[in-house]
Amino acid sequence: MNISQIFEDHVMQTYGRFPLTLVEGQGARVRDDAGREYLDFCMGIAVCSLGHCHPRVVSAIQAQAAKLTHVSNLYFTEPQGLLAQEMNENHIGLPGKIFFSNSGAEANDGLIKSARRYGHLRPQQDGKPRFEVITFKQSFHGRTLGSMAATGQEKIQQGFDPMLPGFRYLPYNDIEGLESAISPETVAFLLEPIQGEGGVNTATKEFLDALAQLCEKHDLLLMFDEVQAGFGRCGESMAWRTISPEINPDAISWAKGMGGGVPIGAFWLSDRIASDGKTKFSSLMGAGSHGSTYGGNPLVCSAALETLREIREQNLPYQAKEHEKYIRETITSWGLPVITEIRGKGLLLGISLNANLVKTEDGETPALKVVRQLIQRGLLLVPAGPETVRLLPPLNVTRSEIDEALALIYSTLSEY
Ligand SMILES: *Cc1c(COP(=O)(O)O)cnc(C)c1O
To answer: Which SUPFAM superfamilies does the annotation name (predicted)?
Structure first.
């Protein structure tokens, strides 16, 4: 069987795939169809937070698959309710309500729809609804028409115009100009507290605090996209808390790591009372306003529930923070000229490369070149922008797995 030929004949060519066919995984390791083992510090792009085939997730999926897989949201199901409760009480820690989607992009569409609803509830002075959502350059919010329009990167939008109107992109971490960018139509800020795809960029505390203050002053929603950074990856349950723990956002989106490998996303709206003095933000999306046939079905919710319980019970956010210290210290101690900076938090880390030292051909980026070399040596990483390689190990990674990965990275980068 030539799987790459089958893909070429039958699967749409939207991805530049690495020439690797993965067939099984266990913990931090995956195996290809030739039986070769790789240390996986990509984890399906930050999705498998507990590694591959964690026994707790496997048995949750197996048990639920044999019990009840799907019935739609026409009915109550226990796993969805228990998951929402686990998220609210043990991870978010603020009163609010959750809607379940199937992906991060869909979750962000939910945030955008919520913002527009708020713009109807609290309109402009002339009564026209507010609708504009301010987002940031180098952001990534997804590939649907809504989340693509929210994404502040031309390459994501190219060829799909006209974009959904109602977005403006400001420079990330630039406080000056924030307030003057707010127009009568503006209703929300949406941002990743730590940008993943855009190169692993962390918001400063001053920046997040300034946004929170402006939201208060101009009656705007503060919406965090925690799709990649949330649920422990960055060293706290929620990524913004690693930067400015006192901030109480109005809305949050998640996906990726929350499900431990199953396709699930969610967005949350705060129970806080809006500026009309009576409406809870969480009631902006009332009956009939939004929906998803699959969203929050028992199968994915039981997998996510066990994933989040394990993250909490094993104190994995704390471990992520400890691992970060060790990784930063080790890489810094190498003193390699090809490494210009280590960015990010917890186990969402970016190694920034000196592009002058990594010569590439045929438009290949320095990050892609290094990722390809590391695959050949048995380590899976993923680029974040043209000059940054990203480390996304499972949250329960061991010190010896980290040492193994660092040795491979050192042997590759010390050649430059
Ligand atoms: C991956 C990602 C998304 C999109 O999630 P999908 O599940 O691919 O739709 C949105 N926001 C951020 C920050 C992401 O990293």
So the answer is: PLP-dependent transferases
Total residues belonging to the chain: 416
What CATH superfamily is the domain 3-54+315-413?
Aspartate Aminotransferase, domain 1 (3.90.1150.10)
Residue 14 Cα to ligand 1 midpoint, Å, equals 16
Atom nearest to 45 CA in ligand 1: 1
Kindly give the distance from the C-alpha atom of residue 228 to the centroid of ligand 1, in angstroms, as a whole number: 7
Q: Which of the residues in the chain have pLDDT under 50?
A: none
What's the confidence (pLDDT) of residue 363? 85
Give the start-end residues of each E strand in 85-151: 96-101, 132-136
pLDDT given at position 362: 87
Tell me, what's the pLDDT at 76? Answer: 98
Q: How many CA atoms lie within 13 A of 170 on its CB side?
A: 22
**DSSP codes of every residue in 230-267:** TTTTTSSSSGGGGT-TT---SEEEE-GGGGTTS--EEE
Count of beta carbons in the 10 Å neighbourhood of residue 345: 21
Spatial neighbors of 55 by CB under 8 A, at least 6 apart, are none
Among the CATH numbers 3.40.640.10, 3.40.50.1980, 3.40.50.720, 3.40.50.2300, which is that of 68-313? 3.40.640.10
CA of 356 to the centre of ligand 1 (A): 30
In degrees and rounded to multiples of 5, residue 8 shows phi and psi of -60, -35
Token pair for 54: 């964690």
Task: Say how many Å lie between the CA of residue 226 and the centre of ligand 1.
Answer: 9
Task: Give Cβ neighbours of residue 390 (< 8 Å, ≥ 6 apart).
Answer: 196, 200, 344, 348, 349, 350, 351, 381, 382, 383, 384
Report which protein residue has its CA nearest ligand 1's atom 15: 228
104 lines ligand 1 (CB under 6 A): yes
Is the Cα torsion angle 283, 119, 231, 102 positive or negative in sign?
positive
Atom of ligand 1 nearest to the CA of 265: 7
pLDDT reported for residue 24:
98
